[in-house]
Amino acid sequence: MTSPAIRSDAARNRGRLLDAAAGLIAERGSDIDVREISRRAGVGMGTLYRHFPTKEALLDAALEHVFTSWAEQAAAARTGEAWRDLSTFLGDALSRQTASPGLLDAYCQALPGQAGNTARRHCRQQVAPLITELVQAARQAGELRSDVTDEDVSLLLVALGRIATVVPETAWRRVLHVALDGLRATAATPM
Amino acid sequence: MTSPAIRSDAARNRGRLLDAAAGLIAERGSDIDVREISRRAGVGMGTLYRHFPTKEALLDAALEHVFTSWAEQAAAARTGEAWRDLSTFLGDALSRQTASPGLLDAYCQALPGQAGNTARRHCRQQVAPLITELVQAARQAGELRSDVTDEDVSLLLVALGRIATVVPETAWRRVLHVALDGLRATAATPM
DNA sequence: ACTGAAGCGGAGCAGATGCTCCGGTAGGGT
DNA sequence: ACCCTACCGGAGCATCTGCTCCGCTTCAGT
Predict the structure, then answer these.
(1) Which residue of B has its CA nearest to A154?
(2) Which one, out of A64, A157, B14, B80, has a CA that is 20 to 30 A from the CA of A164?
């Protein structure tokens, strides 16, 4: 019959490769040597390229896991208090970025208008709807200024992500605080 | 006599190398091939390495020019209206970044706490005093919130620099607007 | 057990990139 | 006009990195 029945070692190695790639992305961003990925996964290079047509494909697959769990945890953290939810979402996202520098890099590569890479775009779509919801809720609660879009918030997040990898947490939290104050309805100055 | 008297062709070639490097940094950031620099300068690789011990040294020298002229033009644009000066400084800096993606990258590499590279740090010091002045003036005028430091503003600039290279000007100007609103004394929420 | 096809490992290829070396060239003081 | 020396150019070296190739291994259906 047509029962391809994936071999057990193949499945195991595929998982190891994804874990290794995700770990390395977390530690050092998306600029990694394929040899290092395969070494960390405990497999050979041939195995890597049997499972993924290209290095980029592997990184995309690994990132998708990362983004999915980010979206899940962020959704679970919602309390219903709109403003609080929005600001903790941003703070948590930046914390996450501090711990794994590749995260918002990947998100940035998926911004509309960026060249190509549909897989990265798919990563972004794991989180984008959540941002839209948080923004809408905060706006309807009258706490977020009404002329701010979800894309503005996305961009703000990506921007802050750059400094989150570079300066200590106390420093970027100050800037986040300022940015949040700028997002408040009470601070609005005509665009 | 002790008249080293730099040869004319040497001086000319050194200038060409600096121009070529600055141009390429502007167009594509700091990740450039030495072969391309020397080709654009119309000289050979040997010439490049006669004048600069390393690629980094050449880039540092080229960036110093760029930063100097940035600082000069920004200082010349001051009007005395504190808030206006601060916000146009930020807008102009981001415009500059849009035109030459390597700019704030270099500035970012010179942030305190970053690893090494004294030359890059020297680049930052071309602009840092100006930021300090602008921040002090705006604060004394009572328009900038009092709990914000010049380093906060630097970080904000670097952060916004990331998106300035990636989305159209209308998009990053919106985010800048929000950030500026957050900097206003009237928007301040306790840190 | 048996067997054959899917899977595995890592040497090696091709191209990119920072830098060096050295035979030849040309500036500029005499 | 001459010559010495600083200077020039670019072939070539060493290294890195994404990817392929192919002989050997191991799973899983019988």
Answers:
(1) B175
(2) A64
